[in-house]
Design goal:
This protein is an alpha+beta fold and about 350 residues long. It is built from 13 helices and 15 strands. It has helices at about 15-20, 30, 35-40, 90-105, 140-150, 150-160, 175-190, 195-205, 240-245, 250-265, 280-285, 315-325, 330-340, and strands spanning about 1-5, 45-50, 55-65, 70-75, 85, 110-115, 125, 130-135, 165-170, 210-215, 220-230, 230-240, 270-275, 290-295, 295-300. Strands 1, 2, 3, 4, 5, 6, 7 and 15 form an eight-stranded mixed β-sheet that branches. A seven-stranded mixed β-sheet has the order 9-10-11-12-13-8-14. Strand 2 and strand 3 (about 55-65) form a beta hairpin.
């Protein structure tokens, strides 16, 4: 076995990803390059090959650096899923070792590998504070409504009193999505991705991505991007205005997404990543979503501590408080430069 390093995906990369049971839509070559195309980030494809030169393992890595948090390699930033694809533990270990070698060569502060299962036999540090929230889906809208219960149905019906327009689209819906999303991120104290990031992301995932917008009196008040992989549909990005939440329009939006997933024949709806017992965790749990443990593994030089690039880090919390006070136009201008440096 040998491990190769490349700046572009080899011709057999996507064929390997498509047949791997633990792969995500983000492992595909075009999706791996989202950070490169949107922000100019350095991207590396690690490939393990057997003596016949057959691809038997894959690991995409993206390099980021920040004056506040340092330099790091991530598989994969900006999304929940990434990490090593391999059937044989020895192949996975070889890819993990090569990732550590790259970390040493590039003098990074850590290498972060995002998995849905434990990475055994490697000895990397592990974080277990994140979960994905998954809702198993029935085969009909009627069964879905019954599964959700009377309280949720009542909240959905509340929004039906409003003159809503439900619009399913593609790239043409991204400007409306972005207006809602940028305002919502500002309210959370989080720098927003650039419009270009979403343009590049949608282009990379065009065959599996959809954009939902919910309009009230001609103005978009809730919006989401959905991504399908296999029998699962995920909502990695969604947002709603304060008015939308007041009128339960956000609940109607999630109902529309769940109906869409059922009609598409999906077996599960992925509400996205949350910290256990956070507000977003509880919001997703009320729909019946169950936590799926995420395993984020870290190569760390010199026995360094596991990084905390989130609101549990005092540096991040202080920055978030200041960000919320910044005018929206200014946050939207500066935010894309900052967020490109965060995984």
């Amino acid at each position: 076995m040998r491990v190769e390093e490349a700046v572009t995906a080899p011709p057999d990369w996507d064929a390997y990803v498509d047949q791997h049971p633990r792969a995500s839509a983000y492992h595909r070559a075009e999706a791996v390059r989202i950070g490169e195309r949107a922000f100019g980030l350095r991207t590396t494809f690690l490939c393990a090959r057997d003596p016949r030169a057959q691809l038997i393992g894959a690991l995409p890595l993206v390099e980021q650096s920040s004056a506040l948090f340092g330099r790091f390699l991530v598989s994969l930033p900006f999304v929940t899923y990434g990490g090593i694809l391999a059937e044989d533990p020895s192949v996975a270990a070889a890819l993990a070792a090569r990732a550590a070698d790259l970390g040493r060569e590039r003098r990074v502060d850590h290498v972060e590998l995002r998995h849905t299962e434990a990475l055994d036999g490697v000895g990397y540090a592990e974080r277990l504070d994140k979960v994905s929230m998954l809702l198993p889906l029935p085969d009909s809208e009627a069964a879905l409504a019954k599964q959700l219960g009377s309280k949720l149905r009542s909240q959905i019906r509340r929004a039906e009193r409003e003159p809503l327009e439900i619009v399913w689209g593609g790239a043409q819906s991204l400007p409306a999505f972005y207006r809602v999303f940028a305002a919502a991120m500002h309210g959370l104290g989080t720098p927003v991705y650039s419009r270009r990031f979403f343009d590049v992301t949608h282009a990379a995932l065009a065959d599996v991505a959809s954009v939902l917008t919910v309009r009230l009196r001609g103005e978009t008040h809730a919006a989401a991007i959905l991504v399908r992989h296999g029998r699962r549909i995920e909502v990695p990005w969604a947002a709603a205005s304060p008015l939308a939440k007041q009128l339960s329009v956000n609940m109607r939006m999630y109902w529309e997404m769940l109906k869409y997933a059922v009609d598409a024949g999906a077996e599960a709806f992925d509400f996205g990543r949350s910290s256990v017992d956070s507000g977003t965790y509880r919001f997703k749990a009320q729909w019946g979503a169950q936590p799926m443990q995420l395993h984020w593994h870290y190569w760390l030089p010199r026995n360094a501590p596991i990084p905390t690039l989130n609101q549990s880090n005092p540096k991040y919390a202080r920055a978030a408080a200041l960000w919320r006070r910044m005018p929206l136009w200014c946050a939207n201008w500066i935010g894309p430069y900052i967020v490109r440096k965060l995984p």
